[in-house]
Design goal:
single chain, Beta-Lactamase, Beta-lactamase, five-stranded antiparallel β-sheet, two-stranded antiparallel ribbon
Length: 281
């Protein structure tokens, strides 16, 4: 296996930036060799829904210390209603779920009502404190997902490709929480149903926890398109976090976002990273 050609990957991403009129920010780690690719990896940017990974880490930390019972039931009210992704806002409230299953909805369908409920449960300040304890000092979720009566004054969660790639790498290597908690995070991420960016052009098939090759990822749609995840292949694995920030607002007239230019930009970039990791560029 030849060394990672970072210059060639950087050039490939530069051409995609010209094609899709935006800028990539990325960090990638090949987990067997430790080789890295970095591009503007320390710039602080809005995370969109990828901050939910930080919330899940804090939830499992509090569960380990006995502050939260994952099997207890939880409901939501009007104060937790949010626009955007998810299924709970279409249901008649209240619906009763376990804390664990609410967290699963937050992750695999990026449910924003579930997210608001989980942030309230664990406390947004505790999420940020835990990230800083992990030396992810550029990560700040502020008050969580903006919404409700104070939406205009709430700040977006922010992080960097460096921090989020570091977090998912620590989870994969079982370096935080407990090994069982890290395995559960990966299990949930493998069930992600938002698959139009990182998994789109990578030849890894359907996986419900039994496949030898798999992708565990969290997607974010917002001011930036974001992916953070692990790609586990037969011969090696790599972690990544990629942001794509358009240079100007991109109009979208379609309900389906699969062919929305920033989404396509991310999908092509993730395929380029996959090719570079396997020395196919």
């Amino acid at each position: 296996m030849s060394p990672l050609n970072t210059a060639q990957l950087a050039e490939h991403l530069r051409r995609l930036e010209q094609r899709f009129n935006g800028r990539f920010h990325a960090r990638v780690i090949r987990l067997d060799t430790g080789e890295e690719f970095r591009l503007r990896e320390k710039e602080v940017l809005p995370t969109a829904s990828t901050f939910k990974l930080c919330v899940l880490v804090e939830l499992l930390r509090q569960a380990r210390t006995g502050l939260v019972d994952l099997n207890s039931t939880i409901t939501w009210g009007p104060e937790h209603l949010r626009g955007g992704d998810g299924v709970l806002r279409a249901m008649a409230a209240p619906q009763e779920l376990t804390v664990h299953n609410m967290a699963v909805l937050m992750m695999i369908v990026s449910d924003n009502v579930a997210t608001a409920r989980m942030v309230d449960l664990v406390g947004p300040q505790h999420v940020t404190e835990t990230m800083h304890d992990l030396r992810l000092n550029d990560t700040d979720i502020h008050e969580g997902l903006p919404g409700g009566d104070r939406i205009a004054e709430m700040q977006q969660p922010v992080s960097t490709p460096y921090d989020l790639c570091e977090l998912i790498t620590k989870i994969y290597r079982r370096e935080i929480l407990t090994p069982e908690a890290c395995d559960e995070i990966i299990r949930i991420l493998r069930a992600n149903r938002c698959n139009d960016m990182l998994p789109r052009f990578i030849p890894v098939g359907e996986d419900w926890g039994e496949a030898a090759e798999w992708i565990a990822n969290k997607t974010g749609y917002g001011q930036c398109r974001v992916e953070v995840g692990i790609v586990q292949l037969e011969k090696f694995a790599f972690s990544l976090c990629v942001f794509f920030k358009p240079n100007a607002p991109v109009p979208n007239r379609f309900k389906c976002l699969a062919d929305y230019p920033p989404v396509l930009a991310m999908a092509h970039a993730c395929r380029a990273i996959y090719d570079a990791m396997g020395n196919r560029l």
